[in-house]
Design brief:
Rossmann fold; single chain; alpha/beta; 2 domains
């Protein structure tokens, strides 16, 4: 029986898109075919006890391709009888691929997300990414834009090994009617027109632009509410922006919400909006955005910022809109268009759910990942 060692910094209990991506893949391996080697984090013992597969926690909270980590990972690979390796994020841990190949790995797959775009643009990191691409059997990408950006750092051999593996959604968890009414009641929102943004509170995700757009939204749609779901280092600045604009109860911050509890917050929305933007001179783009798929699966129209591969998550004008993430006026106009035309919003939401069900299901994506790990493939 084949057995895969998943080597990853990104895994629950930490929350984020990559963590959700890796966990979703691991959960869909047949029993006995996967072992996870990952970093330590608060609450990990209780979480790991719920899983049907072994999880080995390194003593560090961040894994790097050091000599010590290499020895520990190779030891786990041998001890658990593995013959395949999946890197949850290719950089930097993909640098361990040669040691694992020497230990007997028949097939090595490394997943890329959005941060490898930064690696591809920084000289020293670019050379390391090139080494990773040359040492694995498959180097995946989550969007066409990410493929092209990362491919610039790769050798011809590395580019030939690029294969698509985008994140997905479980439409059995994210569906219309999965608890939105309870969220609205709990937060005192009632039947007010509601826009939801669910993401880490960091500058790139665009919550500040939604707040900047909100006076115009309120002017056109009196009583409209904005629900900002999540937490992060930018929260204080966002709360200050709300106060400075006198938005009062029009904007609600939920604070941290666990991934297990998140579906009803999407369901509560009339519109989902996250106008992500590329920052740091192009080094910090949005790779894709699982939240867009989760909102679409709940039957919600989505508003996506034009950043990196994020536009791949929406069929512009059909399931939602792609906007200039630096323009509060454009963001406000699209929100108002959807809040004042419920029929259009419903039609876009229906189209988005159909698209999510057809093209973005985790079961299909996990099956593709396991096919890439098939040692019989060239």
């Amino acid at each position: 029986m084949p057995r895969t060692l998943v080597v990853t910094n990104d895994f629950p209990t930490r929350q984020g898109g990559i963590e959700a991506f890796v966990a979703a893949l691991c959960d869909r391996f047949p029993s006995g075919e996967v072992v996870v080697y990952t970093s330590s984090m608060p609450g990990d013992a209780a979480y790991d006890a719920t899983l049907p597969y072994p999880v080995i926690r390194d003593r560090r909270s961040m894994l790097l391709s050091t000599r010590r980590v290499r020895r520990a990972v190779v030891a786990a690979f041998v001890e658990h009888g593995c013959d395949r390796v999946l890197f949850g994020a290719s950089a930097p841990l993909g640098l361990l691929a040669p040691a694992l190949r020497e230990a007997g790995a028949e097939r090595i797959v490394a997943i890329t997300h959005g941060h490898e775009v930064w690696w591809a643009r920084v000289p020293i990191m670019r050379s390391l990414l090139r080494r990773i691409g040359d040492s694995v059997d498959v180097l995946t990408y989550i969007s066409g834009w990410c493929r092209d950006q990362i491919g610039r750092a790769l050798s011809e051999t590395g580019r030939s090994r690029q294969q698509r593996l985008a994140p997905g959604v479980d439409s059995g968890r994210f569906y219309p009617g999965c608890g939105g009414d309870a969220v609205r009641a709990e937060l005192g929102i009632g039947d007010a027109p509601l826009v939801v943004c669910a993401a880490r509170l960091v500058a790139r995700k665009g919550q500040d632009q939604l707040i900047a757009a909100w006076p115009a939204v309120q002017s056109a749609v009196p009583g409209a509410r904005l629900l900002i779901v999540g937490d992060g280092k930018h929260r204080g600045a966002l709360e200050k922006a709300v106060a400075e604009r006198g938005l009062g109860d029009a904007v609600t911050f939920t604070g941290p919400v666990t991934w297990a509890s998140i579906p009803p917050y999407f369901d509560a929305a009339d519109v989902f909006a996250m106008p992500s933007r590329t920052r740091l001179a192009g080094l910090e783009p949005e790779g894709l955005g699982i939240v867009f798929l989760e909102a679409a699966s709940c039957g919600k129209p989505v508003i996506v910022g034009r950043s990196g591969g994020a536009p791949d998550a929406v069929d512009d004008g059909v399931t939602g809109f792609v906007v200039d993430p630096t323009s509060p006026d454009e963001i406000a106009a699209r929100i108002v268009e959807l809040l004042t035309d419920p029929a259009k919003a419903r039609a876009m939401g229906d189209a988005g759910r159909a698209r999510a069900q057809a093209d973005w299901q985790w079961d299909d994506i996990a099956a593709r990942c396991r096919a890439y790990l098939d040692a019989s493939l060239p």
